[in-house]
Amino acid sequence: MTYELVIGDRGYSSWSLRGWLLFDAFGIPVKTISARLYTDELPNLLKDFAPSRTAPTMRTPEGWVIPETIAIAEELATRHPEAGIWPADPHKRGVARVLAAEMHAGFGALRDHCPMNLRTSYTDCAPPEAVLKDLERLETLWAWAKAQTGGAWLAGDYSAADAFFAPVATRIATYNLPVSQTAMDYVSQHLSHPSFRKWRAMGLVDGADQPFYFRDYPTRPWPGPAPLPAKAAEGTTAENTACPYSGKPVTHVLELEGRRFGFCNAFCRDKTVADPEAWPAFMALVK
Predict the structure, then answer these.
(1) Measured between alpha carbons, how far is 116 from 94 in angstroms, rounded to an integer?
(2) So where does this one cross the membrane (predicted)?
């Protein structure tokens, strides 16, 4: 038995993103079980994960249920000390824990005015004063952390602190929030991170748009890496006979630069169409 992780819609559930990054970004295998937000799916699913009330919720290989991303991070770090979820250096580890704790409990105005939405990007969202104050606090924390640790990420190498701030980075990207170039550089690191690119690619195709997240703002292109121009195609003729992810027979196909590649189901194909370079197993076929 492996870990299980209950998640909500990938395009919208910021807490689920944090929880999933604690696995994927640190090389810890996990089986995800998804449920659509604003329906009965999630509460019904969580009946089997007491005492949890929301996503993400982890079940350990022994069957223990652990909700809340702070608890998930600590439990995984204890079980997998080699993964680097928290920095090995005591000072950097302390900085990372300060950051994760404040992110877990704070920034309410930013969360409320700018809910995570990975499916669009706006030119402006008219952030009110309370949101601007949250952004000022972000700038202060990020600058302090980098001054303390001297790394490319908040506590040196990528750590749980960065996983916790990933949804905030996406909010800055989605709503074109006013931050310094230094802060925007940090946001860009998140948008290019391999695990985040996989999550967003899946989030673009794993269900219909959620009306709650619609905002009537002018849109712009997503500010992260531009995807290769793949598209879904009819038929099953492809260069490969087995799905690059599951090894199962090809049933769905995409086209990329005049070539055809096959997958075992629509989701495998569509997440690849969304961002081909997010998937190393697919790019190995292309090369």
Answers:
(1) 27
(2) none
